[in-house]
Amino acid sequence: MNKPNILYIMVDHQIYYRHGWDMGPKIKRDNFEEFALSGVDFTRAYSTNPLCGPTRRCILTGLYSHHHGEILNDVNVPFSEKTYLDILTENGYKNYYYGKWHAGVGTALDHGCEGFCYPSYGNPYLTQEYKDYLEEYHLPSPKIRVECTMDPWRLDLKPGELYVQDKEWTNEEASGILLTPKETHESFFLADMVCKRLEKIKVEGNSRPFSLRLDLWGPHAPYFVTQEYADMYPPEEIPEYPTFDSAQLEKPSCYRKEHNLGIADSKGNLIYPNPIPWERWQLLLSRCYAHSTMVDDAIGIVIRKLKELGLDENTLIIWTADHGDAIACQGGKFDKASYMAEEVMRVPLAMSYKGRIKPKQVTDALVSNLDVPTTILAAAGLSFDYEPDGENLLELEASGFKKRRKFLVSETYGHIERNVAKSLVTSRYKYTVNKEDIAELYDLALDPYETKNLIFSEKHLPLKNKLDKMLRDWVKDEKDNFFDGDSEYILQEYLSKGTNKPRDY
C-alpha cells in the first residue's frame, strides 16, 4: 500500500471529562462523534503533561517532558532531537501546519512545514493572513461584548464593554458574545486555510503523500462565542458541578492555590466557599460549552472537505487535544494549574484509517496523546531514531486492544504554582506523588470525581505501596530525576537548559 496521507487535528484546552456525562446538558460535539464512528474512540486517553508547551513538545518528539526538557510554557529548550515532522519531510512527505505552535523555540516552519504558524502562543487575529481573510470574504473585524472576566493580567477587560483581541496572546480568561459572524472566529479562519490547501493538493494530483496538521487555539478560553452557539446552552439548565463546593482539605496544597480574579485571595489561595455565585458560573460554563461546539463545527468543515475531494481514501486521521479544562471543578477553578485532576488530564482521542481500522470501535485501553507521533510515523513505515516513550496505537488496534498498557504515567512541573508531580493511572486507580506534599490515591471506578483521597486509608495501604513501587520502578527505568531532589532542584536543572524565562515563573 502507498504511504498514507496524514491529517492530525489538535484542539487546545478541551472541556471534556464528566461534563454532561452524568447530569446536565451534553456538550454538542457532533462532528467529533461522527468522526469517531468512522474508526476507534479511545475513552481513556490522557494528556502526557496537562499544559500547552510541554505536551506540544511531547507530541512532536514522542518523548516525555523529563526527556525533551521543555517542562513549562516558553522555556525554549533547543530541539536536540528530530520531530516527527522532520522525519516525514526527510522521507518524501509534503508537510503542512496551520495554527497554534507553543511547543518551544521556533515554529513548525523550521521543521519542514509550509502553512500558517507563528512563534509561542501567538494571536491569529493580528496576522496579515487573517486581515487578508477578512477582506476576501468581506467580513468585519471581530468585536466582543465581554460578560465575565477572571483575568489578573488583563485588567482592561470590563464586563459589558466591547473588546478587541489585540494583545500578543489570545488567551484571555474571560467569556463573552462575539458580535460579528462566526466566520470571524479563529477556528473558521483556520478551517478555510486548510480547505484551500486540500483543494490545491487535489488539483496538483497528490503525487506525494501529505501530512497536514490543524492546531486550533480553541476551545481554550476566552470563551467568545456567537449568540447562535450561546443559545444552545441556557445557563439555568447547567447543574452545579459535583466538586464545585469542595474545600479540598484531603488534597495537596496545590488544589487550594488560585490566581484568578474573584476566586483568589491576596496570598494566592482559593477562596472557600467560592465567592462567585453559581449563577455566574452557569454563564461561564454555558459559553465554555458553546465554544467547544463552535470549534467542533469549524473542524467539521475540514473533515467534509477531505471527503468531498476523495482525499480520505488513504488517510490516517487523528483528532485529540493537548489537555483538559478545570473550569468549575475542585472547589471552583478556572483555567488549570499544577494539580493533576482528571478534568485537566483526560482528553478526547479518536482515530480513523479507511481500510485499515474498522469503524465503530470503542475502547477503554489506557492511551496518551504522547502516542500520536509514534503512531503517525508507524503508519508511514517510519520511526524515530531513538526509542520513543509513546506507543503505536495502530498496533494496539490491530491486536483487538489486547496489547494494552497495565498503567500509564503523566507528569507536571507546575503552572503558576511550583508543583512537581507524577500520576500513575491503572484501569481503576490513580496514584499521584506530589513533591513536598501529600500523595493522592483515588478509586476512579467508585469515585470518578476524585472526592475522597484514600492515601491515609489503612485498608488501602497495600494498594498504595504496590502503586508506589510501580511508579518508583518506572522512574528508575526512565532515568528520571523525580526522586533525586526537591522541586526547586528539579526545576532549575531543566530550566538551565532553556533560552527563555517562562512567562509565569
UniProtKB/TrEMBL annotation:
It comes from Faecalicatena acetigenes. Residues 4-381 form the Sulfatase N-terminal domain. SUPFAM superfamilies: Alkaline phosphatase-like. Transmembrane segments: none annotated. This is Sulfatase-like hydrolase/transferase. Keywords: Calcium, Hydrolase, Metal-binding. Gene3D superfamilies: Alkaline Phosphatase, subunit A (3.40.720.10). Belongs to the sulfatase family. It holds the Pfam family Sulfatase. It comes from the Bacteria.
